[in-house]
Every structure is written in structure tokens, then in C-alpha cells.
Design a protein that fits this description.
single chain, 221 residues, alpha/beta, Rossmann fold, 7-stranded mixed sheet, globular
Length: 221
């Protein structure tokens, strides 16, 4: 069976990708130390250390499936509430504009991409500018139907060991540049949810093929 060519943008250490099967993955991650850990987790994937937003624009036509998880902090409810309470004691929580590269990618993919695609982000503190699907405590924008997948994905206050167990990666003795280990783990999409989204992307295609096959049988009978 021909492998599905996947572009995995803002790949992190690969939580979303962990349970994908029959795939040929190109993973894009800008943080070198995080990208190195992804490569250790998935030695057969093609890992490129570069800006995912720019890579998408130049290479979107080369894949069967695109997954993008743009940076989420400026959209999150937790950070928004932190700006109300802790901005004085934690300057990094000062008010910031939402990063609109999220919506740039959604609009771009809606109008130009011919492959299956999905953009993932947190449930935002504001009303989404483009209506998403909601599944597993995440927002998903896509060109296929996504069903809700009920899973306890609350990881914000979990310990590192709890996070490791949740996503199935062990990061003992691993060090990241400019990133905390708990943040890297928390940014992982839970593997079962990643698998669910992937199956949703190609279930519709399989159904269409099945319908065509059944129609031919009816016509020939």
C-alpha cells in the first residue's frame, strides 16, 4: 500500500504523530534541540529545522496530508487570565496581540490546498474568527469532518512524569534549548487524539470509494 505523504508543521517532539501508520512524514520544527528529540523518537521521518510558516507556503502542494499546530500561547484562555492577575510579577505574561499566523494558514489552506489538511490550536479566549471543529479540548480547522473525541487532555498542572505517561515519551536526561521540559510535553497533542484526527481525514475518502464500488455493483447487477 502506498504511504501517505504527511507534512507535520510545528512538530515539537511528535505527540500528534506517534500513532500514525503507513506514512512518510516530513516534520518541521524550528528549535534544534526539540527537533533532535523528534528525530530520536521517529528516526525514519525527515526532520527539517526551519520556520514552519514559511515552509508551508513554499511546499504545501507536495503532500497528501498537512497537519499544522501554530504557536498557541497568545490565543489561550490560561494566558489571557494570567495577564489579568500576574502581569506585574511575571512580565512575560504582559498583554500581547494574538498571533495571526494561525488564521493566515487557515485561510491559505482553505483556498489553495487540494490535499487533506488540519490546523490545530487551543480553545481561545475570544470567539474564533473562523468556526472550528472542537475535539479533545482543542480547536481544529480542516477540509474534512472531525468528530468529537472525548479524552481527558488536561495537562497544564500535571507533573512531568504524568505528562510523559500521557504522551508516551520519556525525557529523562533530555535538555532543551530555550524550552522547559514540562512545556514541551504539554504542547504535545495526545497521541490517541492525533490518531483520531488522522483517521477522520481519510475515513471520508474511504467512504467515497466504498460508495463508488457499491454503485458499480448495483449498475452491473
Amino acid at each position: 500500500m502506498k504511504k501517505i505523504k504527511v507534512l507535520n508543521l510545528y512538530a515539537g517532539i511528535g505527540g500528534n504523530r506517534k500513532l500514525w501508520e503507513n506514512v512518510e512524514v516530513t516534520a518541521i520544527e524550528i528549535n534544534k534541540s526539540i527537533a533532535n528529540q523528534y528525530q530520536k523518537n521517529f528516526p525514519n521521518d525527515n526532520v527539517i529545522i526551519t520556520d514552519a510558516h514559511r515552509f508551508l507556503l513554499k511546499n504545501f502542494e507536495d503532500y497528501d496530508f498537512i497537519w499544522s499546530s501554530p504557536p498557541c500561547p497568545t490565543h489561550s484562555k490560561i494566558r489571557f487570565m494570567a495577564t489579568k492577575v500576574n502581569a506585574i510579577t511575571h512580565p512575560s505574561w504582559n498583554k500581547k496581540y494574538p498571533n495571526m499566523e494561525l488564521y493566515q494558514e487557515i485561510i491559505f489552506l482553505i483556498h489553495y490546498a487540494k490535499c487533506k489538511w488540519v490546523v490545530e490550536n487551543v480553545i481561545s479566549y475570544y470567539e474564533p474568527l473562523i468556526k472550528p471543529f472542537e475535539s479533545g479540548k482543542h480547536y481544529f480547522w480542516s477540509n474534512f469532518h472531525i468528530t468529537n473525541y472525548k479524552i481527558d487532555s488536561r495537562m497544564h498542572f500535571a507533573t512531568i512524569k504524568e505528562k510523559e505517561k500521557k504522551v508516551g515519551f520519556t525525557l529523562e536526561n533530555v535538555k532543551f534549548n530555550d524550552a522547559r521540559k514540562d512545556e514541551v510535553l504539554r504542547n504535545c497533542v495526545e497521541p490517541r487524539l492525533g490518531q483520531h484526527i488522522f483517521k477522520c481525514a481519510f475515513k471520508e475518502q474511504q467512504k467515497i470509494l466504498g460508495d463508488i464500488f457499491n454503485d458499480k455493483q448495483i449498475t452491473n447487477s
